[in-house]
Amino acid sequence: MLLTWRIRAGKIDLFGWQFCGNVGPVIHALWSQEWSAGDKDNVLSETGMAGLPKRTRDFVSQLLAQRLSRGSPEDMSASQSIDSLRGATPLVLPSLLQCDFANLEREVRTLEDAGIRALHLDVMDGNFVPNLSYGMPIVAALRKVTKLPLDVHLMIEKPERYLKQFAEAGSDLITFHVEAVADAQPLVNEIHSLGVKAGIALNPATPLGTLDAYLGAVDLILVMSVPAGFGGQKFHDVALDKLQTLNTQKQTGQLRPEVILEVDGGVNTSTIGRCAQAGAQWFVVGSAIFGQASYRPAVEQLTQLARL
Ligand SMILES: O=C(CO)[C@H](O)[C@H](O)COP(=O)(O)O
């Protein structure tokens, strides 16, 4: 639902309901910052909303909760939604491979409440990797129930066949594997022409040098710390060397500083700190979130351990 309101001289008109006095600055504070649904406590303390009468506060909270979690994806372009996360590192992205697909929307709400800022979607085709997961329909279904940025990781052969469909399904960032293509540049160009950010991934056994020709073009580099295909595998230390090299390349100007370094596979409380030290900014986590009874403490602990 897209809410419309007008703010005039501290007076708010929400669907014809009028609020005066303190509500104006509160709405302004709420709206001028990118909040996630998991930021509820911060919203209360930082916007002055706590000072409003309870009835008004409940009403505004209800409307804003709907807006924050289910707002129209047209509000921000795919590219803008990824750009808006640049200052939010370290960022833990749950890999939905291991979520409860019978209750997908409920899982998304729980993750939003846990403070998650973006979702990582693992697309597997049974060819490029020996496992099958899901495709465009799940991306489109998620797009309908959340405005969280969708980071789509294609573990498929011939990814060029599906870029447009994944973009149209609502992806904000599309990553494909360097091992799956002869030349990555046309795919990066096409992803950009679709208004989406482009990432490139490489498996633990693939030398970092295979990315050299594309470092100037991509928005994100996904360093796999397990061979792509399955959750729950053991972390490969070779990922740390690659992250360290990429991080050094950023510092020496060989890689644009805004390129996001993401790590995926076996990231947990024992490995996340080393990934952060090596230069990772985005951390894809499956088992270490979905294997826990409660997501919020798991996400908070992982985020804390990734802070340098
Ligand atoms: O891309 C993946 C597998 O190819 C998954 O994102 C990854 O394995 C996450 O799961 P876990 O944290 O359990 O390793």
UniProtKB/TrEMBL annotation:
Its EC number is 5.1.3.1. Pathway: Carbohydrate degradation. The active site is at 122 (proton acceptor), 264 (proton donor). It catalyses: D-ribulose 5-phosphate = D-xylulose 5-phosphate. Keywords: Carbohydrate metabolism, Isomerase, Metal-binding. One of its GO terms (biological process) is pentose catabolic process. GO terms for cellular component: cytoplasm. Signal peptide: none annotated. SUPFAM superfamilies: Ribulose-phoshate binding barrel. Its cofactor is a divalent metal cation; Mn(2+); Co(2+); Zn(2+). A divalent metal cation binds at residues 120, 122, 153, 264. Binds 1 divalent metal cation per subunit. Catalyzes the reversible epimerization of D-ribulose 5-phosphate to D-xylulose 5-phosphate. HAMAP family: RPE. This is Ribulose-phosphate 3-epimerase. It comes from Anatilimnocola aggregata. The gene is rpe.
